[in-house]
Design a protein that fits this description.
By secondary structure, this protein is mainly α. The protein has seven helices and two strands. The chain has a two-stranded antiparallel ribbon with strand order 1-2.
């Protein structure tokens, strides 16, 4: 067998995950430069990539190694896109004190725990069944891609930084609480996409 020139897998499903990661890395630089609109657009684009990469992966004929790699790379990228990136956005709004740093640390820690737990349970689930997942344990970390931009829309109507700090603490708790969150069906996904589009346009002040 011919040895690969590069390690890893590069089918279309993981390439879409990599594109989402690229949006997030660029978004981090924009958040730290106070270009918050661009940062939130990048966050939502990362969420959009994540929405479709799993569907594409399931439709592809993959080897067992590709499936395992997909689980790992998806969670690793999710940690950057929906763990570290939102934390940097919150930091860029002034969460630089003791309370702000504590909120950011707890948020990222909860995201790490949530994603690590998901990896273990998802690999186990895929061994036991080929059925699609119908519900999640805890709030998926990707939900921050819609929730945080939504909160951003109210920045001019409240003391935004304290609201932001409380918000990420609540989301962090929801990440690790053992609650059942139903996975959206096709119609639910359409509704979510429509809501995300409205929020996207609102962030850009185009709607």
């Amino acid at each position: 067998m011919r040895e690969k020139r590069m390690i890893g897998f590069y089918n279309f499903s993981v390439v879409l995950t990599y594109i989402g990661l690229a949006f997030s890395i660029y978004g981090m630089t924009q958040a730290l430069n106070d270009n918050h609109k661009i940062a939130f657009v990048c966050l939502m684009m990362s969420g959009l990539c994540d929405m479709f990469d799993g569907k594409i992966a399931r439709a592809m004929d993959r080897t067992e190694d590709e499936k395992r790699f997909g689980i790992q790379i998806d969670s690793l990228c999710d940690l950057v896109c929906f763990g570290a990136f939102p934390a940097i956005i919150v930091f860029s709004f002034g969460a630089t004190g003791v309370i702000g740093n504590a909120c950011i640390i707890l948020y990222v820690l909860a995201a790490v725990i949530r994603l690590g737990f998901f990896n273990v349970m998802e690999e186990k689930r895929q061994i036991e069944t080929s059925e699609n997942r119908k519900q999640y344990q805890g709030l998926p970390v990707t939900s921050i891609a819609i929730l945080l931009p939504f909160v951003y829309l109210f920045r001019n109507h409240c003391a935004f930084l304290p609201v932001l700090e409380v918000f990420i603490l609540v989301v962090a708790l929801l990440f690790i609480l053992n609650i059942k969150v139903k996975k959206p069906n096709k119609s639910g996904a359409i509704v979510m996409l429509a809501c995300a589009t409205i929020i996207f346009l609102k962030v850009l002040e185009l709607f």
